[in-house]
Amino acid sequence: MPWTTDSLNIFVERDENDNVRLLEHLRYPFTDQSTNSPHELAAVYLWGVRALLALPDSAIEHLKATIPHPWDGPGKPTTNKGLQLRWERAFSIREETTVLLIQQTQTVAEPKGPDAEGIDVEFAGLRLLVHIDDKGSRRITGITSTLVYEPIEVPESSRRLVKGSLLLGAEKVNAILANFGLSPLQLHLELRATRFLHRFLPQSGLEGLRQPEQPLIAGHYYIANAIRSISGGPGNNPSAYDLTVREWDYAPMRVEVLLSHAASTNTQTGLGLAFIADPVSATGDFALQPNASPVSLDGNRSYVALPNLAPPPTGKPWSLSGKHVHMNDGSPRLPGWIGIKPPTLKQPFFAFRSRTNEFAAVNAYYHLDRMFEIIESMGMPFSSFPMGYKLPVHVMHRAALHPGVCSDGKCVNAQVQILPGYPNPTVYISFALADLSRNPGSADVPVEPLGIACDARIVWHEFCHALIAASTNFLEFPFAHSAGDALAAINGDPESHFNSAHNLEAFRGLTYPWGKTSSRRHDRLASEGWSWSSALGQKKGYENDIRDMFGYAREQVLSSTLFRLYRSIGGDAMKTVNSPDQATRAAAATYATYLIVRAIFSLGPRRTVPANTADALEAALAEADVGSQTVSDGVNRLGGTVHKVIRWAFEKQGLHGGRAQPIDVYVDNARKGEYSFDPHWQASPRGIWNSTTPNPLHGDQAPLIGQDNYLFVRVKNRGHLAAKNVTASVFSALVGQDQTWPSTTWQRLSLTPGGSQTLSQNTADDELIFGPFTWHPDFPWSYSFLVQVDTDGDLSNTNQNTQLPCARGPTPLSMLVPLDNNIGLRSIKVP
Ligand SMILES: [Zn+2]
User: Fold this and answer.
1) HSE (side-chain half, CA atoms, 13 Å) at 416
2) pTM
């Protein structure tokens, strides 16, 4: 059957104006064997979905005619009437996925001449991913849209473009800075401005500035320029800014501070002492807070390798700088410098007591280097992210944080800033303190302070800002602060003391158990208001929510969502009643981290297609799963096994109104088709049962050897639409030969004459009973039965038509059955 947008396998998300914002069809891939070009495939796809996305034919024809060669820059805009599109950028993830960004443009100056070219409309575009499997075939499984459909009103007086280069000399840059009340550049340099149509909305931070002679009207679009610059700022606290001005008069329209709270090829490995995990997570002892005595904290240090250090020139000492991380020593002088240099030594052996600045420096290097190494080992090195940020990143282990009350560096916090630079920007991560109660550095208490870089969880949080920046060019998500709390919670869990016994659950949910400053949690419940369906889930609310100024409430909704995902895919695994299965948990943490990093990677610059809602991030996570071939997280995981759990994890946090997909059939089990972790994931006798006669009503009976037996399957639906043409297929293998799918050891059972293999529901509440399927055991052994249920609108992950890597396999059953309720397994013993 040809691919059609009428299929129940396509899920459509619309906004409050009924515009389509997202198409998702992870198990219903769009393919076209006639082309090998991702751009061509995308153009054919857009033609197929043009009615849903309300795309004019002319816009798609323009894209078809301007497919860029690999050596070309971004595509040209057009002067077409109506909605206009141009290719923005394309970038590749792990050679498995090409991300294509398409920019909406608008012609402003009429009627002709160079000014008549379309100008980019800020935040308006399309993002689609083309996945390539290891046989080279390409498929598209969804698209995200932030297109603007309402008329783009540019006041007559503002329709002119200023002639000349967008490379602005220092005079022009200083004029822009002055309009924002910022101090002039210290160095004379040219900055490249970006030009786009910006919709003006009055914003806090602009009041008090001089009004332009021609006032800006809220809701109207203006030809705008943006520059990025470091400035002294008010109170002379230097910081990096993204400044948007009206092009022709530099009237200030928006200011964004580019910070968020909280390379050498030949490298060598040093040694140091660090906290691998914070002392409270590691021991469960709340007495080991950051204000504890040096003696008790010192006992929690471990020897760690410090890889990727750049060896010093002959005669010079070693410092904590290398391939990924450069510890700033005051040169260049970066914002926040308070004169505390990182240690330098004759030998690369960085062993210090915990309550010292040097120890904070070692921890900052150790944790950040490890995180950059982790994403590199996943095939997603930081420098390959779309914005081309360069390594090493700059790090200050003890810094003042601006703006705020931390101008002396004596506060409990950390932050990330973007360091604009031409052509390659990077990030700059600075850390303050973990503890103030010992009045650090005072004459009365001459101990040194404990740095917050000693908390690996805090470092994960800041690291996530660096990832978001390297992909989107901004430090936070538009709908939530970041996914940093999720990375901290997930990666802090496998070895945490709090993950074992049930009486510690309340502590397990603390995202930052070390230190008393933060009460953020990752076990928040939708039923208590931490829901994507409440005000917290709306981007509009975020921008004006004075109860959640920094987005940390939304961050907890996100961390709770993603921590649930981690738990379901193995984060709750136990070896015995009281002993967590750390290897399985660590593998789950690795895969969850992989998905989060890859989802962020795939977003691309925010000015084109911002991730405005949690739905957009959910889709990016699911695409990260289905677009992966193999990921090694301690075990080899094939792509496509966890996307249903991702959907469920968001649903449980209130997204999609807290409802399942419209059709969600499942083989009846104790979990009622849900995905909370269950080590006993075999179907119950209610879901799959044997009868010695072809009658389902006798319930589960022990099989009889040497004669025909009859297998039945019960299927229900979590959705609200009746499922039609549901088919069940049953396969059997001897226990011991039943570990992977597909495999020749599985034999398909034939349907007993008169039995049911395909059934339809009248209402979504109907139970469907399939069978009987005949089987004939010839010797005493345990037999496994694998049931695969498929229906339009809900295919199983093992269905070949999905083209999911895990359907091609061979995939371990432990990654298929518990993570897909369309698949059931039961082993039955023949006595
Ligand atoms: Zn943050």
Assistant:
1) 27
2) 0.91
